[in-house]
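Sequence in, structure out.
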Amino acid sequence: MDGIFFLLLAFLTMFSSIKLSYYGDALSKQTKLGTALIGGILIASITSLPEFVTSISSVLLNNPSLSFGDILGSNMFNIFVLAIYNIWFFNTDLFKNSSSKYKYECFILLLEYLLIYIGTKTNLFDMTTILLIIMYILYMIKVIKAENDEVNSYKYVNNPLIKFIICAIILVFLSILLTLQADKITHMYPKISSSTIGAILLGITTSLPEVVSTYALIKYDNTDMAISNMLGSNIFNFLVLSLSDIFVKNNHIYNYSDIYSYTYLFGGFLVTSLLLITIIKKNKNKYFYILISIIMSLIYLLIWYFQFK
């Protein structure tokens, strides 16, 4: 019964995400704010609300490992989804046509992975948290300064901002319920690491907004915003991890890492590095990008295979 309820919440999250991406797309075009600002900050932050709520809730429920696994699992899954979309939408050339400006976001993510690793291996907890927050602020400044005059055709939507806010509120409510269910499941299966349950149940489920909204954006022929959405979500997720550390009582969230956490940390760093290669190295042959996408997908699947071998 608990599993069925969890799946129901996941379905409702997906439905809300579809609407969120639709209104976000309309909002970017009707207000002319630009895909970088809307995709990189607004949609990325809103679709990452499940990670934010579940991560903070996990800490307040005295289960920080659940939060750690949630963030790392979500980020790794998001890049895996981009790789799958690049293969699935073969004629769209998602990676081939990606803007070189997104290498900045990839560099930030790789640096944040290193910062988190340092935080788990040293006593520089406060420095790690502060630097993660600073990295997100720098990212926001860069996105806000970016100019994007791209205009596409769209179907006019009445009051997109109001509808966008309503979808965001619904996502927050669903996220709280998801956390409570995941925490309940961790107590039902004590032999399974909380970070693993966080990476599987919360990491994948809370990424559904990004998965669905990115799919919708690609279908709306807004591939630039689709990539911006995923990378922006991952950067926001690391901000969430740093904020979660503040809520941990008499300790730091980095101390709750385990061998499984390092696996997700390494996996996320590796697939993000491969994504950076596709952005920097422009190749006329689209099969080059398909090959990189296949490698990224295999890395993700192998990580899970060895987790349960």
